């Protein structure tokens, strides 16, 4: 990489900001650079990284938003390709990184509709209070006066102050961003979705324990919660950053006459913003007619949707509604957006996977016969009238879940979907009569011995031919005959092995 490139569009103020950031990084202590793909003392597996994160970020910034001049002005393409490769390698190292968690404030979220789950939560709270004196446990505020939870008895049994058990509400969580260090969920996938919904921005790492019927997100068994939590709280763990979608709803006002130009203008009102972990669904709701939706990508019309609706899902949501509608399975480590139609009125409208960098807009066509309805992870249903639209982008606030094993995604779909499971082909020897079974064994052994004899003759003939080269036609015919016998023998052996 050349150092003689000049940023001609960078102002003095922006350069000062960059220098100030670099100075701040230097003051944080010893700088840890990526050397051959390994962040010193943080990353386990080395990659092929050729530059650090700051270098890659600065290069992308220069290539995309500023002008580079110098001797390499006409040769920026290799420079661009190298930077893109470095960013991909950096992403690989981030996925393989292990993080050490320092937990002081722990929040527990459980399924409040099941009383047995409350007693399981009591066990988790009591074990945490006894084994980690520095951790404060937060449970939902509905348990503050609950006789089932009995916080006073828990503190008495744990020999700790009652102030170590505190209570959270949705408002408290939303007003205290980055306050909690770890989340424990007790329930099914719906409990994890609820945990995602109450954190509008930064979501703490989640340890999801399986207490539901299906568990694509809950890969930890509750029976071993003590060993799991002890490992999470005392060792480095690998974290899955599950992508969320940022959804903004806009409402179309009636057209007005602009006094200055005399033309009709239409203003859009911002309604709400949502961050979803599974999917956003736009459907026809109670309307008996088809939905007529316009799908835009980067403000360019991609297609019009005529059918029951449209699903825009994350990789995590690929195992939910999108899968039921015919969408593809996507690993949560892949950053992508899945667009799946719901009962389209055409056979050629197939599901499509789009990059997470794309900005999608789903708009109800002005000529639609009815309205549409949008919901976010199955909740917060909003009606969309003609001209209303939803803007969908990848959210900057991911949902981190503790990884149970490197193959947890394949294990979850194999367990819950019986993915690619079928009976293997079996031999037919078990249905033969005893007489034919005995004959089968004798013939199989005999054919195996014949093949060994034929192969031995072949090796002997080959060695003789190598010592003395013969040009007679008889030797050549004999070798061909031996080769054909070997082929027939191998074929028979394969037949008996079926």
Automatic annotation (TrEMBL):
Keywords: Kinase, NAD, NADP, Transferase. It comes from Saccharomyces uvarum. It comes from the Eukaryota. InterPro entries: ATP-NAD_kinase_N, ATP-NAD_kinase_PpnK-typ_C, NAD/diacylglycerol_kinase_sf, NADK. The gene is SUVZ05G0310. HAMAP family: NAD_kinase. Belongs to the NAD kinase family. It holds the Pfam family NAD_kinase. Residues 456-478 are annotated as: Disordered. Residues 461-473 have a biased composition (Low complexity). Gene3D superfamilies: Probable inorganic polyphosphate/atp-NAD kinase, domain 1, Probable inorganic polyphosphate/atp-NAD kinase, domain 2. This is Uncharacterized protein.
């Amino acid at each position: 990489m050349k150092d003689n490139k000049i940023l001609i569009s960078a102002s003095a103020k922006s350069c000062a900001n960059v220098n100030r950031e670099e100075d701040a990084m230097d003051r944080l202590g010893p700088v840890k650079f990526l050397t051959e793909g390994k962040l010193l003392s943080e990353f386990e597996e080395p990659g092929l990284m050729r530059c650090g994160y700051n270098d890659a970020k600065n290069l992308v910034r220069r290539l995309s938003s500023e002008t580079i001049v110098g001797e390499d002005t006409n040769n920026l393409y290799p420079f661009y390709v190298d930077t893109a490769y470095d960013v991909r390698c950096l992403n690989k190292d981030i996925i393989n990184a292990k993080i050490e968690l320092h937990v002081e404030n722990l929040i527990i979220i459980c399924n409040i509709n099941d009383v047995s789950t409350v007693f399981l939560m009591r066990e988790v709270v009591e074990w945490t209070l006894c084994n980690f004196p520095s951790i404060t446990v937060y449970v939902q505020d509905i348990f503050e006066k609950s006789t089932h939870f009995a916080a006073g008895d828990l503190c008495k049994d744990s020999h700790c102050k009652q102030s170590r058990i505190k209570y959270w509400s949705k408002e408290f969580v939303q007003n205290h961003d980055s306050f909690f260090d770890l989340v424990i969920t007790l329930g099914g996938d719906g409990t994890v979705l609820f945990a995602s919904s109450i954190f509008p921005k930064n979501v703490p790492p989640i340890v999801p324990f399986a207490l539901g019927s299906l568990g694509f997100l809950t890969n930890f068994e509750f029976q071993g919660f003590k060993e799991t939590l002890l490992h999470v709280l005392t060792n480095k763990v690998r974290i899955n950053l599950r992508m969320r979608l940022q959804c903004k709803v806009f409402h179309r006002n009636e057209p007005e006459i602009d006094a200055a130009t005399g033309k009709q203008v239409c203003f859009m009102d911002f309604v709400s913003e949502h961050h979803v972990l599974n999917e956003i669904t736009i459907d026809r709701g109670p309307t008996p007619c088809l939905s007529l939706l316009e799908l835009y990508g980067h403000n360019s019309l991609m297609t019009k949707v005529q059918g029951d609706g449209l699903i825009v899902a994350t990789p995590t949501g690929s195992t939910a509604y999108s899968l039921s509608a015919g969408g593809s399975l996507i690993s949560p480590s892949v950053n992508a957006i899945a667009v799946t139609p719901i009962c389209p009125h055409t056979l050629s409208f197939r599901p499509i996977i789009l990059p997470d960098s794309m900005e999608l807009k789903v708009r109800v066509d002005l000529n639609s016969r009815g309205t549409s309805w949008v919901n976010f992870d199955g909740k917060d249903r909003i009606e969309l009238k003609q001209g209303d639209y939803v803007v969908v982008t990848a959210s900057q606030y991911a949902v981190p879940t503790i990884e149970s094993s490197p193959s947890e995604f394949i294990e979850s779909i194999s367990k819950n979907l019986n993915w690619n499971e079928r009976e293997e082909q079996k031999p037919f020897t078990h249905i033969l009569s005893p007489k034919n079974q005995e004959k089968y064994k004798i013939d199989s052994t005999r054919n195996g011995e014949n093949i060994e004899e034929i192969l031995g003759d072949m090796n002997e003939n080959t060695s003789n031919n190598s010592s003395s080269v013969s040009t007679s036609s008889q030797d050549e015919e004999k070798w061909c005959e031996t080769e054909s016998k070997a082929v027939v023998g191998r074929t028979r052996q394969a037949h008996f092995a079926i």
